[in-house]
Sequence to fold (188 residues):
Amino acid sequence: MGGKRIVVAMSGASGVIYGIRILSMLAAAGETSDLIISSTARRIIPVETDYTVSQVEELAGTCHAEDDLMADIASGSTLVDGMVIAPCSMKTLSAVANSYADSLLTRAADVTLKERRRLILMVRETPFHRGHLELMLRVTDMGGIILPPIPSFYHQPQNIDELIEQTIARVGDLLGVSHQCGRRWGNS
Fold:
């Protein structure tokens, strides 16, 4: 069980619960996680959830300051298996799409792309305008995966937690993490 090292970053958009639940999934699977929480995400966590920032940090294996460009995950020589930005603001999407690595969050994403590792961006905005879509296409062309937290309903969710879990299951699958989240098509 375990063996993967995944970077989880939370940028300043609604939907911090996705990052929190990804950390929980990784911990349950015995995987190693590195966490970066942007300054705006730190303010959003207590607004949108019952968690404190400290409680979220306790879910991670290692926590990094947003401005710590000397952290090991800022270097391609550090072996990580993938990275997910959950949620991913349009500002962060733009930085990643334009290789603007002015923080550890965007530097780690840039390193993930340049090293051809799995990068998942859970972009949080709606509706999208052409500029948003062009940025998403640009990241996709560089090898990133755009995974907006758009719920499915074939599993007949009974509450918000089940909607969140179904989306987190997709993230786990993309990262190659063994998990018990969500239900697959055709399974009751």
Q: What stands out?
A: The chain has a mean pLDDT of 95.
